[in-house]
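Hi U.,

Before I forget, here's the chain from the pilot set. I'm dumping it here mostly so it's searchable later in email.
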Amino acid sequence: MNSTLITVLLIILAILLIAIVVLYFLGRRAQKKQAEQQEQIAAAAQNVTMLIIDKKRMKLKEAGLPSVVYENTPKLLRRSKLPIVKAKVGPKVMTLICEESIFESIPVKKEVKAVVSGLYITSVRGVRGPLEKVDTKKKGWLKRTQEKLQKKVNANK
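Structure:
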């Protein structure tokens, strides 16, 4: 009884070790690939002044991007929602993909200077002064309820 239990545990341990080693090497390969892509994005970057019309998180198919973008996207990412920005660059209205980290800080209906690499916005700064800080921390249910009640109390007074 004890010997079978020990062999089963050793087999499970061996499988876990193999899985950890495989994940380690896959992670390193993905990290190298990402570094190469960041270098390519930085090489093709341009400073552009644009007027932000609208921003949303939407699926790639609904965004109105060129069909080449959709076809070259991996199948797993096609159904995920991406941060999409509609902006007027010069006389043209363009649909651009935004970096996730700066999406919340992009102001709507304002002019900004952006670093764009192809259809990808990598950074944004204000044309006339700094951008307003946006509180990205989500409010809890209790905090939202307190604010609603406070608004009602203020409206009744």
